[in-house]
Design goal:
Layout (H helix, E strand, L loop, with lengths): L33 E2 L10 H15 L13 H8 L5 H9 L7 H11 L8 E2 L2 H13 L7 E3 L13 E5 L23 E10 L2 E9 L2 E9 L5 E2 L7 E6 L27 H11 L5 H8 L5 H12 L14 H19 L2
Antiparallel strand pairs: 1-2, 3-9, 4-5, 4-9, 5-6, 6-7, 7-8
Helix pairs in contact: 1-4, 2-3, 2-4, 6-7, 6-9, 8-9
Length: about 350
């Protein structure tokens, strides 16, 4: 992967003293490295279309026999990369020694050409689109992909889903990425496979950059329809599902971690609003405790939420005028704080 670069410092956005991401992964979140198409909604047959494309790509790679260094696959591989990179950077990605990992570019290509439209964050890293899907669900944005823990009933795979799992920097190692920490700013290694078939308790999913090719991975479901970790795999991070009427749990945000410490369970109207925000995943138990302890400064609370989501930020760093995505994220936290403090 290319080294990430930061943004130049410019006057603070709207003059508000609000934090901003330092930009360590900026090129995976904005510009050519990650893109959400404005105004385009996913097609109703997205899963079928994208699944057929995945199968066709696997056949094009001769079921794994063709490799990334095969000259005949150059243009195909460049097409994947150009979903998330400029043409020049795509060429660099292919010609680097070793070539840049391209599994996220493959998933991005599938989703875009399958009709995913603006529902997906097209990126060079799986953690970026997974984090975006997690945040979309927390915010109740039904127009986007949502991320589910692999232990949630809603995560039982369907055609069109993306199974994202942890991996380490080298073969046979695991990095430790989970649903709860995937968006903490760490540059987690991960991998995503696109579900193309579910028959009985067997799930077939296709991914890129598997043994330097496109390959199919079989997964097994337990009696509850949930994924069983294969002995050769690291843990599951999430199952991503596209928007649509068939999505289970529409409108339900992910639950907070069951191990969240010290959150009280009684109180009046304010407590009820805090309870709901924590239960829906819109606010952490720690922020809830600050509010119940008497803190009512919405800027301070919003900053705390933002910094908790992005621990790599230095203290006092401010969102800049050209960093609208980060500003919008901070404003979503502020709106959550306001709704909890002031009520509907």
């Amino acid at each position: 992967m290319p080294r990430e670069r930061g943004y130049e410092t410019t006057p603070a956005w709207r003059g508000e003293a609000i934090p901003a991401w330092r930009g360590e992964t900026a090129l995976e979140l904005e510009g050519a490295y990650a893109e959400t198409l404005e105004g385009e909604t996913p097609t109703s047959d997205f899963g079928t279309r994208a699944g057929s494309l995945a199968k066709a790509q696997r056949a094009l790679w001769r079921n794994g026999a063709a490799k990334e260094t095969d000259p005949s696959m150059h243009d195909t591989l460049k097409g994947y990369w150009m979903t998330v990179l400029t043409p020049d950077d795509a060429e660099t990605a292919i010609r680097s020694v070793p070539p840049w990992p391209w599994s996220a570019a493959f998933i991005s290509w599938l989703v875009r050409n399958g009709g995913g439209g603006s529902s997906f964050t097209y990126a060079t890293a799986h953690r970026v689109y997974t984090s975006a899907a997690k945040h979309a669900r927390q915010q109740g944005d039904t127009s986007k992909f949502w991320a589910y823990r692999a232990t949630e009933p809603q995560s039982s795979p369907k055609v069109g889903d993306i199974i994202v799992k942890d991996r380490g920097p080298t073969t046979g190692t695991c990095g430790g990425a989970t649903y709860d920490n995937i968006d903490n700013g760490n540059t987690w290694d991960s991998h995503g496979d696109f579900v193309v078939d579910v028959t009985g308790n067997t799930v077939s999913a296709i991914g890129g950059n598997l043994s330097d090719s496109v390959g199919l991975t079989p997964y097994t479901l337990d009696s509850n329809g949930l994924l069983i970790k294969r002995s050769s795999d690291c843990g599951f991070i999430a199952v991503l599902r596209p928007p649509g009427p068939g999505r289970d749990g529409a409108g339900a945000a992910p639950p907070p971690p069951s191990s969240a410490p010290g959150y009280p369970s009684t109180g009046g109207d304010l407590k009820s609003r805090v309870d709901a925000a924590v239960r829906q995943g819109r606010m952490s138990p720690q922020i809830g405790n600050l509010i119940l302890g008497g803190l009512s400064d919405e800027v301070q609370l919003s900053n705390s939420m933002f910094y908790a989501a992005h621990p790599e930020l230095p203290p006092g760093y401010q969102i800049k005028s050209n960093q609208t995505a980060w500003a919008q994220e901070w404003l979503r936290y502020r709106d959550t704080v306001r709704s909890v403090l002031n009520g509907p």
